[in-house]
Amino acid sequence: MLGPNGAGKTTTVGMLTTRIIPTRGRAEVGGVDVVAHPALAKQAIGVVPQTNTLDRSLTVWENLYYHGRYFGMGSRRARAKADETLERFRLADRATAQVFALSGGMAQRLMVARAIVHEPHILFLDEPTAGLDPQSRIALWEILRELHAAGQTILLTTHYMEEADQLCDRVAIMDHGRILALDAPDALKRSVDADTVVHVTTDGDTDQLAAELGRMEGAGRTEADGSMVRVYLRGAEGVLPRVVGAAEAAGFRVTDLSITEPTLETVFINLTGKDLRE
């Protein structure tokens, strides 16, 4: 789930994980009504919230062991599961460490490890890589890929377009509490009706340049953004000379030029706008 701040992502996850009671409508997880049967729903889910909720009075291993016991595992099985999960998440060498001694990346890996100890059907991750350094983010991505390849259903919210593009089979773009688009990343990128985006920088009137370039053959639409104009086009072959020619013919001097393919960020901005949110 992608969306600006305040779009409703965390609230949606809160309702699906029984932390927030919906004001209306119906929500089911794994076929279980989360309002009518919250305890039953909790048995089917694992949750990694935005904030660190590890028990600081317990060691790394104990956080997993007691979580398993809380979900009804016998002592022997909970011990085995804690050992196995620490190995899987490359935290076995930290088993006896206190959680406050972990780095941010390690703590986040332990949060995910704890959430799957009881083998939930669905794993909810609310902005799991927010604030992590690039190395820790990539390490967590690898773990999530492994979990998904093993059959784990995962719902995550994120602000990172690359994260959604790299990890997700389907992406929902949300704003003001509504799903604006839901599809595979590639299908969403095709929905902008362009396979090429040209970025043109000029020292002239960008609104006027956008209007001129919008008349080009194959141009779907144009956007003026500061000193730059974005042109969305069908067909990449020979497009840069054509854009430069059209700009110069209209009396504009092109100071910079680049070409990209549509991205999830393109779709996101198209649907939610580019205004800053609180």
Structural overview:
The protein is an alpha+beta fold. The protein folds into 2 domains: 9-188, Rossmann fold (3-Layer(aba) Sandwich); 193-261, Alpha-Beta Plaits, CATH 3.30.70.100. The protein has 11 helices and 11 strands. It has helices at residues 9-16, 38-43, 60-70, 75-88, 104-116, 134-149, 161-167, 185-190, 206-213, 239-249, 264-272, and strands at residues 28-29, 32-33, 45-48, 122-126, 153-157, 171-175, 178-183, 196-202, 219-225, 228-233, 254-260. It has a 4-stranded antiparallel sheet with strand order 9-10-8-11, covered by helices on one side. A 3-stranded parallel sheet has the order 3-4-5, with helices on both faces. A two-stranded antiparallel sheet has the order 1-2. Helix 3 (60-70) packs across helix 4 and helix 5 runs parallel beside helix 6. The longest helix is centred in the middle third of the chain and has 16 residues, at 134-149.
Write the topology of this structure.
Blueprint: H1 9-16, E1 28-29, E2 32-33, H2 38-43, E3 45-48, H3 60-70, H4 75-88, H5 104-116, E4 122-126, H6 134-149, E5 153-157, H7 161-167, E6 171-175, E7 178-183, H8 185-190, E8 196-202, H9 206-213, E9 219-225, E10 228-233, H10 239-249, E11 254-260, H11 264-272
Parallel strand pairs: 3-4, 4-5
Antiparallel strand pairs: 1-2, 6-7, 8-10, 8-11, 9-10
Helix pairs in contact: 3-4, 3-5, 5-6
